[in-house]
Write a structure and sequence with these properties.
By secondary structure, the protein is an alpha/beta fold. It has one domain (15-211, 218-275): Alpha-Beta Barrel (TIM Barrel). It has ten helices and eight strands. It has helices at residues 15-27, 44-64, 83-99, 114-125, 142-149, 174-191, 203-216, 230-236, 253-262, 264-275, and strands at residues 31-36, 68-72, 104-106, 131-136, 155-159, 196-199, 220-225, 241-248. An eight-stranded parallel barrel has the order 1-2-3-4-5-6-7-8, surrounded by eight helices. Helix 2 links the parallel strand 1 (31-36) and strand 2 (68-72). It is globular. The structure holds flavin-adenine dinucleotide. Flavin-adenine dinucleotide (FAD) is lined by residues 107-108, 134, 136, 159-163, 199-203, 205, 223-225, 228-229, 245, 263.
Length: 277
């Protein structure tokens, strides 16, 4: 069972837990993106297990009739085992999700996986339009990737980038990453017909997207994590489409630990929960 201290960031361990959270969000006008926690598998068995878990989840989402998508990690579906393993697992998840009318997001991992991930996305998205991929503003290549992705259907989530990338391929200074994020949004709003997802908690980035929306009229959605700026998420629903990324599953500890360590306030929240005040 997930301890109460972790339940701010993780919905629970089971499908039932994540669907209950999705239902509560739905009542507040927030869509959800379910992510079964798991990554960096080096054998095919856990990747196949997670593939089947996602297949069962999309069936349950379809039956529940919720505005809920899923987000999968390439290394969770076997990219570390073999590219073919990842591609065939992804194919199966996407087929089952399409049968049940569920949108599938592909998370982006470190820069060594970008080509394979984007190739899998562009391959599948011509057949299954309910597909989206994440790109990272900290990578120097991303503006070129965005120009290319503008020609495809599907959706693209822009994030700043969570991986510690080398200076040879990435901007490393926070101010430069913020500038790159704005440059990427410029490209998306100018060249995309829609399908823009702003994956950021940063009020400056969200405000910039709103400005671009006013200028270009292109639709966009805002995506934030469970447990982060939730009151802002609720406020934004008055005018914008908001999606909350909701992690769940029994491999919750390392995700929870990362969330706790990234901000001083989160650590204080954790300490207060432990001492009961
Ligand atoms: P930051 O640069 O971290 O913070 C900027 C400002 O935002 C802060 O100054 C503060 O005002 C506000 N803020 C940020 N965090 C908090 C908080 N906890 N509480 C209150 N205010 C806060 N990364 C990947 O590499 N691959 C992925 O597939 C991926 N998917 C993601 C999906 C979603 C929906 C989201 C939201 C993020 C995802 N990320 C992914 C992570 C992303 O790359 C960033 O590491 C992460 O979002 C932090 O950057 P930021 O834009 O939110 O703002």
């Amino acid at each position: 069972m997930i301890p109460p201290i972790a339940s701010r960031f993780v919905a629970g361990e089971t499908d039932r837990d994540v669907l209950a959270h999705a239902r509560a969000l739905d009542a507040e006008g927030i869509a959800s993106i379910c992510n079964l926690l798991g990554e960096h598998y080096d054998s095919p068995e856990p990747a196949a297990e997670d593939r089947e878990a996602y297949c069962a989840l999309v069936e349950a989402i379809g039956e529940a009739g919720l505005d809920t998508s899923i987000s999968v990690k390439p290394s969770q579906l076997g990219l570390g085992v073999a590219e073919e393993c990842f591609r065939s697992n992804l194919q199966r998840v996407v087929e089952r999700a399409t049968e049940h009318g569920v949108f599938v997001w592909i998370d982006m991992e470190d820069h060594e996986t970008t080509d394979v991930t984007l190739d899998a996305y562009t391959h599948h998205v011509t057949e299954y339009e309910d597909l989206g991929v994440c790109v990272q503003a900290n990578l120097e290549r991303t503006p070129d990737d965005l120009h290319r992705l503008a020609d495809y259907p599907g959706k693209v989530r822009l994030v700043k980038g969570a991986y510690d990338e080398p200076a040879a391929v990435a901007h490393r200074e926070k101010s430069r990453v913020d500038e790159a994020y704005r440059e990427c949004l410029d490209i998306m709003f100018a060249e995309f017909d829609g399908g823009i997802a702003v994956g950021s908690h940063d009020p400056a980035m969200v405000d910039y997207a709103k400005e671009l929306h006013d200028t270009h009229g292109t639709d966009f959605e805002i995506q934030m994590l469970m447990g982060v700026r939730e009151s802002a998420q609720r406020d934004l629903t008055a005018e914008y489409e908001v999606h909350q990324y909701v992690p769940y599953g029994d491999r919750w500890f390392s995700y929870f630990y990362r969330r706790m360590m990234e901000r001083r306030q989160n650590l204080l929240f954790g300490l207060r929960a432990i001492v009961g005040r």
